[in-house]
Design goal:
single chain; mainly alpha; Growth Hormone, Chain: A; 14 helices
């Protein structure tokens, strides 16, 4: 009955935890960046390269992960990738050579990271329809919470126990929390006799017409809309992953203490919580196109400000503005894909869109590191980010609805 507690809220809570742990852990990479430089003397391009490889593999794995999520459901898949992801952080504690960093960060860590966004957002899109944007936003609030807290947690662990022990503690926390959260995941409400949004159970509505099969994949792949949103995601991640990996070393270059520099990226994560909730809720009223256009405008303005930010307060101001756009861009794309193409193949479609983004995320951090190693400055890469943000805005403005929600 509609009045009973809806199991979809369990899905929402589990997805919140998964997003927080997964993205929070990935956000700690910038905190460990200087530790690798200090102990091993590696260049920024070399250290950034491991992150680039990880995002490339994560993006590629998102496609089969989305397909598996469509076919076998999220529970078993979540358990497997949770163990892989946590194992990767345990192995990082034994790091000695660059190839080990690339192997560990590029396989177990990347495979876990590549799966969780698809698993959680695709599953939530099946459990909620009318409030899909808000619920996706709440899930991504978990991401922002993790991004705000885990870098500070990692910095505290490094200060207290050293970076190797910090990785061991992170690995254990990751496995325990993610495997526990996976136990409540279910593929869709029909598995337990419910309908999306806790609508009343009516057998006549459970036929194939209620499953929202969406458009055929071959038809979707021939549309300009699909490739426009893929290219927009490329532009988005080119900017976002450069900032995530390099903002902490950039802040320390400007004279900020390591703890204060970690606070900048935590501020980004904290403000992204607001962006995820506000823009996720706005999506339900104004749709995906307008929501994404707002995100790219704010992103563009924040990177303009970063060009002149030369002190702590200016960097924290950047974090506030950029964090809002960061949260929105990570939230609105999944419901927009469902809005445009339906949910029947949402996992694989969203996986492809994420691959486009992660491909950019593989290129941009190592490119930024290489440019810094040669030029001794991030100015050129920041100018490139401005161009990417403007291009993403233009691409999103071309989107047109292909189907009724």
């Amino acid at each position: 009955m509609r009045g009973k507690y809806y199991y979809g809220y369990n899905i929402l809570a589990a997805s919140f935890i998964m997003q927080g742990i997964c993205y929070g852990a990935m956000f700690t990479y910038g905190v460990f960046f200087k530790e690798f430089q200090t102990e091993f003397g590696w260049s920024r391009a070399m250290i950034s390269g491991a992150s680039s490889l990880s995002f490339l593999i994560a993006g590629a794995f998102g496609i089969p992960a989305g397909r598996l999520n469509d076919k076998i459901g999220p529970k078993a898949l979540s358990v497997v990738v949770s163990i892989l992801f946590g194992l990767g952080y345990l192995l990082l504690s034994r790091l000695q050579t660059p190839w080990q960093l690339y192997l560990v960060y590029g396989l177990p860590v990347a495979l876990g990271f590549g799966a969780f966004d698809v698993i959680t957002l695709s599953t939530v899109s099946r459990w909620f329809v009318r409030s899909r944007g808000m619920m996706s936003g709440l899930v991504k609030v978990g991401t922002g919470s993790g991004q705000a807290l885990m870098p500070l947690f990692a910095a505290a662990l490094i200060a207290a126990y050293g970076w190797r022990s910090a990785y061991i503690i992170l690995g254990v926390v990751i496995i325990v929390l993610l495997v526990a959260a996976a136990q409540v995941m279910r593929h869709n409400p029909r598995e337990i006799g419910l309908l999306p949004d806790n609508d009343p159970y009516e057998p006549s509505t459970l036929g194939s017409g209620s499953r929202d099969p969406g458009m055929p994949l071959k038809e979707i792949f021939r549309t300009k809309q699909f490739w426009a949103i893929n290219l927009a995601e490329f532009c988005s991640f080119f900017c976002l992953l450069t900032i995530v990996v390099h903002i902490v070393p950039h802040a320390t270059d400007l004279g900020l203490a390591p703890g204060t520099a970690a606070g900048v990226i935590s501020a980004i994560g904290g403000m992204s919580i607001v962006g995820r909730f506000v823009l996720g809720s706005a999506y339900d009223r104004i749709g995906g196109k307008r929501s994404l256009m707002i995100c790219f405008i704010i992103l563009f303005c924040s990177i303009i400000w970063l060009q002149v930010a030369g002190s702590a307060w200016m960097l924290f101001m950047f974090a506030v503005v950029y964090g809002f756009a960061h949260g929105g861009l990570f939230t609105v794309v999944s419901p927009t894909v469902a809005e445009l193409f339906g949910t029947g193949s949402h996992g694989v479609l969203f996986g492809i869109v994420l691959f486009s983004g992660n491909f950019a995320g593989a290129i941009s951090p190592i490119l930024a590191g290489r440019i810094f190693d040669v030029m001794g400055s991030y100015r050129i890469i920041f100018l490139m980010l401005i161009v990417m943000a403007a291009t993403g805005f233009v691409l999103v403005s071309l989107l047109r609805p292909l189907r009724k929600p």
